[in-house]
UniProtKB/TrEMBL annotation:
<dbReference type="InterPro" id="IPR038385">
    <property type="entry name" value="Sua5/YwlC_C"/>
</dbReference>
<keyword id="KW-0547">Nucleotide-binding</keyword>
<dbReference type="InterPro" id="IPR050156">
    <property type="entry name" value="TC-AMP_synthase_SUA5"/>
</dbReference>
<protein>
    <recommendedName>
        <fullName>Threonylcarbamoyl-AMP synthase</fullName>
        <ecNumber>2.7.7.87</ecNumber>
    </recommendedName>
</protein>
<keyword id="KW-0067">ATP-binding</keyword>
<keyword id="KW-0819">tRNA processing</keyword>
<dbReference type="InterPro" id="IPR010923">
    <property type="entry name" value="T(6)A37_SUA5"/>
</dbReference>
<dbReference type="GO" id="GO:0061710">
    <property type="term" value="F:L-threonylcarbamoyladenylate synthase"/>
</dbReference>
<dbReference type="Pfam" id="PF01300">
    <property type="entry name" value="Sua5_yciO_yrdC"/>
</dbReference>
<dbReference type="InterPro" id="IPR006070">
    <property type="entry name" value="Sua5-like_dom"/>
</dbReference>
<comment type="function">
    <text>Required for the formation of a threonylcarbamoyl group on adenosine at position 37 (t(6)A37) in tRNAs that read codons beginning with adenine.</text>
</comment>
<comment type="similarity">
    <text>Belongs to the SUA5 family.</text>
</comment>
<keyword id="KW-0548">Nucleotidyltransferase</keyword>
<keyword id="KW-0963">Cytoplasm</keyword>
<keyword id="KW-0808">Transferase</keyword>
<dbReference type="InterPro" id="IPR005145">
    <property type="entry name" value="Sua5_C"/>
</dbReference>
<dbReference type="Pfam" id="PF03481">
    <property type="entry name" value="Sua5_C"/>
</dbReference>
């Protein structure tokens, strides 16, 4: 298949392109598009045949449901009911990086929900995504626009790398602002539960309802018969080709430990990548050193994380050593993705 690639200016996007891309979605095709979290791979959420193509293009397991993206608050036709807490969260955080799980209506294809009776819905902030949804005239089911298992793409080049030749359209241009996938809150249970941490932090959610909590299963090493509430959280995920190890504990000790591990790898001729921060990057040597950003600005770390993981693949390192972050605020989402990309391989310093 020939993939059309169109670069768009987020603040002044070419309406003609978005109209054509919308028509492709409406007609059952696939379009990769930017959102404020990561790039999405979209299809008509109401059309099971169209949505099946997403699973094929990504190589995604069939039991992993997709998020439905909307451009206006009238979502009554997609759900059985809107719980009062969901209404409050929508009003506060939409458009933005927050997905709400509700009971689905029969309008939404079973393929989109992977057979579940619930559906995740979110309203993206990026104007390109918004106009695309409006032009498509249907809600858009979209997972992250990567080959299943790889880190989610946060710029158009990474979408092209993964999906060129497999889908009709790739549109976008600018880097995603958040860089990590949306926060998911299950609003079908009391109290509501965070199934995946993201740019809307637990602290922010608790300002609306202080009973909201994070599914404890997602931050620790999965047990054998582990069944997270978000099916996708059980897969090895966000993973570059090289194995990732997280070095946790006091930062000074971590730096020393990382230098020690680097030496061990060098001794056996291995190429090491280090995920450092602005505060520590000058304290390492003999490795490919990349800073994720400043520890004083965890949003910058989140924004760069997936891109840095992919850059280490390009550099063909044999192993990636990462510093850890405090699990507070945005640090929860960062550590969730890091732990999953490392397959929970954590070394205490
Ligand atoms: O930021 C995002 O959410 C991005 C952009 C494109 O919007 N999308 C995204 O989709 O991250 P994906 O497919 O990579 O991740 C969706 C996650 C999976 O872990 C899936 O299991 C969970 O959401 N999920 C979707 N529907 C669900 C449901 N009904 N119940 C529980 N978990 C659900
Ligand atoms: Mg994904």
């Amino acid at each position: 298949m020939i993939t059309k690639i169109e670069f768009l200016d987020k603040d002044k996007p070419n309406k003609e392109v978005l109209k054509k891309a919308g028509e492709v979605i409406y007609a059952g095709g696939l379009v990769a598009f930017p959102t404020e979290t990561v790039y999405g791979l979209g299809a008509n959420a109401l059309d099971g045949e169209a949505v099946k193509k997403i699973f094929i293009a990504k190589g995604r397991p069939q039991d992993n449901p997709l998020i439905v993206h909307v451009a206006d608050y009238n979502i009554d036709y997609l759900v059985k009911e809107i719980p009062p807490i969901a209404k409050k969260l929508m009003e506060k955080f939409w458009p933005g990086p927050l997905t709400l799980i509700m009971k689905k209506s029969s309008e939404v294809s079973e393929v989109t929900s992977a057979g579940l009776d619930t559906i995740g819905i979110r309203m993206p902030l990026n104007p390109v995504a918004n106009i695309l949804i409006k032009e498509a005239k249907v809600p858009i089911a979209a997972p992250s626009a990567n080959i299943s298992g790889r880190p989610s793409p946060t710029d158009i080049e990474r979408c092209i790398e993964d999906l060129k030749g497999k889908i009709e359209y790739i549109i976008g241009g600018e880097k995603c602002g958040v860089g990590l996938e949306s926060t998911i809150v299950d609003c079908t249970i009391e109290p509501p539960c965070v199934l995946r941490p993201g740019g809307v932090t637990l602290e922010m959610l608790r300002e609306i309802d202080d009973r909201i909590y994070i599914d404890p299963a997602i931050m620790k090493k999965p047990e054998k018969d582990f069944k997270p509430k978000a099916p996708g959280m059980k897969y090895r995920h966000y993973a570059p080709k090289a194995p990732v190890k997280i070095i946790s504990g006091d930062l000074k000790k971590s730096v020393a430990k990382i230098n020690e591990i680097v030496q061990n790898y060098i001794d056996v001729d291995k190429k090491v990548g280090i995920m450092a921060t602005d505060e520590t990057k000058n304290q390492y040597s003999n490795a490919v050193i990349k800073s994720l950003g400043s520890r004083n600005d965890l949003y910058s770390v989140g924004k760069n994380l997936f891109e840095v993981l992919r850059e280490f693949d390009d550099e063909k390192v044999d192993v990636i050593l990462s510093e850890a972050f405090e699990e507070k605020g945005m640090g929860v989402a960062i550590m969730n993705r890091l732990k999953k990309s490392a397959g929970f391989d954590i070394v205490e310093s």
